[in-house]
């Protein structure tokens, strides 16, 4: 029996229009896409965030933006951060969208598995794959809630008031990271994934389920019981007043 492939394309639902509007605003506010951009690579784990980003960027190409090529880069392996899904699923989606899918393999093993080391390896694999196809702009699916968590993690661990930056030149690697979902809340992405049928995938990393990031997210949930707008206000404060050390030469 042939399995239906979940796709999200314009014309959007009301929520889809709202999310595209947020993405467009982020692109304009932070100049995420140069006017002459021809290729964009997307870090595609297969979870709701990265798939949502893929669908939204694919949907706005040629509509106020150049018809840029999209190259999706997926890192698999025995243990990697992300949805832990089969490559055939992503291949089918990318085939329907006419997007080039590139797969790289992580070397991480269960013994010694640690978020920082794993993240560095995954990023290196993604950056190298992007440059191989001539894409020096690499989009990640980090959203507003990720930024709020990052702000508190940096504050608690390093006494730095620094959230996720929307655009970061990675000079050592020769690429630029962009985060087009920086204005989008996770709950909106979750509902978007349900509407279009790609919500069944969750992170399979055994370490990530008990990470400091998860603990900070739980803390924010507790704060929201008293201050309902705490999450969005943290993310906004990070954009308005956060350190830009990461982009300084």
Overview of the structural elements:
The protein has 249 residues and is α/β, with parallel strands linked by helices. The protein has a single domain, classed as HUPs (Rossmann fold). The chain has helices at 14-30, 48-60, 87-97, 115-132, 144-158, 186-196, 212-224, 230-241, and strands spanning 39-43, 69-76, 100-105, 137-139, 167-170, 175-178. Strands 3-2-1-4-6-5 form a six-stranded mixed β-sheet, sandwiched between helices. Strand 1 (39-43), helix 2 and strand 2 form a beta-alpha-beta unit. Helix 5 crosses helix 8 (230-241). The longest helix has 18 residues, at 115-132. It is globular, with a radius of gyration of 17 Å. The termini are far apart.
Main attributes of the structure:
44% helix, six-stranded mixed sheet, alpha/beta, 12% strand, 249 residues, 8 helices, 6 strands, Rossmann fold
Write a short abstract of this structure.
This protein has 249 residues and is an alpha/beta fold. The chain has one domain (14-247): Rossmann fold (3-Layer(aba) Sandwich). It has helices at residues 14-30, 48-60, 87-97, 115-132, 144-158, 186-196, 212-224, 230-241, and strands spanning 39-43, 69-76, 100-105, 137-139, 167-170, 175-178.
């Amino acid at each position: 029996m042939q399995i239906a492939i979940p796709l999200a394309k314009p014309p959007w639902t009301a929520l889809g229009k709202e999310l595209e509007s947020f993405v467009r605003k982020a692109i304009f506010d932070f100049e995420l896409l140069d006017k002459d951009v021809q290729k964009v690579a997307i870090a595609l784990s297969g979870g709701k965030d990265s798939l949502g980003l893929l669908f939204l960027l694919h949907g706005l190409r040629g509509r106020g933006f150049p018809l840029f090529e999209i190259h999706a880069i997926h890192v698999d392996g025995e243990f990697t951060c992300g949805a832990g899904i089969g490559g055939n699923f992503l291949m089918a989606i990318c085939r329907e969208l006419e997007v080039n899918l590139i797969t790289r393999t992580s070397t991480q093993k269960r013994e010694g598995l640690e978020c920082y080391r794993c993240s560095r390896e995954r990023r290196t694999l993604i950056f190298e794959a992007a440059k191989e196809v001539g894409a020096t702009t690499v989009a990640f699916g980090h959203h507003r809630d990720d930024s709020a968590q990052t702000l508190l993690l940096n504050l608690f661990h390093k006494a730095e008031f620094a959230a996720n930056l929307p655009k970061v030149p990675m000079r050592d690697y020769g690429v630029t990271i962009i985060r087009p979902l920086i204005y989008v809340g996770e709950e909106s992405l979750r509902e978007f994934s349900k509407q279009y049928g790609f919500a069944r995938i969750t992170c399979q990393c055994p370490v990530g389920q008990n990470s400091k990031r998860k603990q900070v997210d739980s803390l924010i949930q507790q704060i929201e019981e008293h201050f309902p707008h705490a999450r969005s206000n943290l993310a906004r404060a990070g954009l308005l007043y956060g350190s830009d050390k990461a982009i300084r030469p």
